Amino acid sequence: MTDTSNTISIDDFAKIEIRVGKVKEAVNVDGSNKLILLTVNFGPSASLDKTQGKGLGLKTIYTGVRGYGYTPEDFLGKQFLFVTNLKPRQMPGGESQGMILAVDGLEMAFGEHGDKKPIFIPADGLPIGAKIR
C-alpha cells in the first residue's frame, strides 16, 4: 500500500512558484557558520521590493550550506531554480524571500542531508525569471 500522508493535490502544487534566478551577490552571513546570503535577480523589476508584476526583481535568499563546503563563489553569477512565493522568513541579518532548490539523497527526509552534499540544480541558458511548470 502506498503512503499518501504526504500527497498534495494538483491545485496545491500549482501554488508553488518555481523560477529561474541569477545570483547577483553572494556573501557569508556574519555570525553564522552555515548561512550564505544570496541576492538573486528574477527579472526586469530590479529592486528589493515584493513586486509580483512582470519581473520579481531582486530577492534575498538564505541558504544553509556552508557546512557542506559551499562558498559564495559557488553561487555568484550562476543561474539556479528557486521557489519564489514562500512566506518570508526572518534570518540572522535579514529576511529570506525564497528558497534555492537542491537535490538531496533519496533516503533522507526533507531538509536532512546526512553527510551527503546537496546538489544545486543549474539553470544556465534559461531566461531569467522564467517560470517552471
TrEMBL record:
Gene3D superfamilies associated with the record: Nucleic acid-binding proteins (2.40.50.140)
Domain TRNA-binding: 12-133
InterPro entries: NA-bd_OB-fold, tRNA-bd_dom, Tyrosine-tRNA_ligase_regulator
A Pfam short name: tRNA_bind
GO MF annotations, alphabetized: tRNA binding
Source domain of life: Bacteria
Keywords recorded for this protein, A-Z: RNA-binding, tRNA-binding
Protein name as catalogued: tRNA-binding domain-containing protein
Organism of origin: Candidatus Gottesmanbacteria bacterium RBG_16_43_7
